[in-house]
Amino acid sequence: MSFVLNAWYVAGWSSEFDETLAALEITGQRLVLFRRSDGGLSALEDRCPHRLLPLSKGRRIGDTIQCGYHGMTFDGSGTCVRVPGQDNTPKSANVRAFPVEERHGVVWVWMGDPTLADPAAIFEIPEMSDSGWHAHHGGHLEIRSHYLNVAENLVDPAHVSFVHPTTLGNAASENVPVHVSTTGEVIRAWRWIRDAEPIGFFKAFGGFTGNVDRWHYYDLHLPSTAVIDFGSIATEKNCAEEDRGAGVRIFAIHFVTPVNEHLTVDHWMHLRNTAVGDEAASEKMDAMFRVAFDEDKAILEAIHEAEQRPQSRKPVKIAIDKGPLVYRKRIRDLIAAEQMDDLGMAISPAFVHHD
């Protein structure tokens, strides 16, 4: 198992869930989501405990789900409230319920121990609530690749020059050093390209005619949410790193949700400090983002397919791999911690440690 379970993962946008039964899979676990009459969302294990038919194959009755095989009925907390033909309901007949939260039109589901589900741990950045920024939900990209490949691609500025030469990058950045910081909770990689031709994206949205200074800051929040802060400003402005808000600035946010070992969904949105309130600009940006993200998809799916074949040699690591290597280690450590019970310090220890 290669999933961190004690974490919030994105199931989709709030607008996608209504009173109908929505089946989906996260971290190899199948869920059914539906919106209750009070407006809240319930997420249940998508499997009747009787004959294992997915509950999503059943039907809604008020705020309950009736199994489509023998009619066992479950409320939004997973409690069995009816077994047709008998008065009692077996205690073991309940299904698991998963904590659900909604923030900024995004639906989050906690996949691990429900007693550890802390809504304060849900990802958020100040710009999501700032009226000076425009928030736009983009789309979903299904990628037939392991989610670790997808996430580490989002802390790797170096690939942009080669994978996205007409949209998010160009040749001017090929040999510009990438800076990496792994000391904090967030893994960050970044670089500035000074006095260079604007990339295709900012030719379209920045209105730049001369050279620009442009930046990419890639922040990876464990287990798999990435924020790419990128933008441009006219070179003659001589912009300092901390003043990049004076330029045309965009945050591309990727909520990377592992479906299973071989499939990942990238729920992507963006925030921008330009064309605020202009939905036509949002649609135009979406079109350009889709081109770039499809380029990533092709690369990542080819890598995943190659990883399934027998390997005759050890993989090569180069300087740009620092961020991804640290990321994978942190994921391994989180998974290992979840798989072990910590009994704490012994009251009367039989072993005395001196280190």
From TrEMBL:
Gene3D superfamilies: Naphthalene 1,2-dioxygenase Alpha Subunit, Chain A, domain 1, Rieske [2Fe-2S] iron-sulphur domain. Residues 8-109 form the Rieske domain. Pfam families: Rieske, VanA_C. InterPro entries: Cholesterol_7-desaturase, Rieske_2Fe-2S, Rieske_2Fe-2S_sf, VanA_C_cat. The keyword NAD does not apply. Keywords: 2Fe-2S, Iron, Iron-sulfur, Metal-binding, Oxidoreductase. CDD domains: RHO_alpha_C_DMO-like. The keyword DNA-binding does not apply. Signal peptide: none annotated. PANTHER family: 3-KETOSTEROID-9-ALPHA-MONOOXYGENASE, OXYGENASE COMPONENT (PTHR21266:SF60), IRON-SULFUR DOMAIN CONTAINING PROTEIN (PTHR21266). This is Rieske 2Fe-2S domain-containing protein.
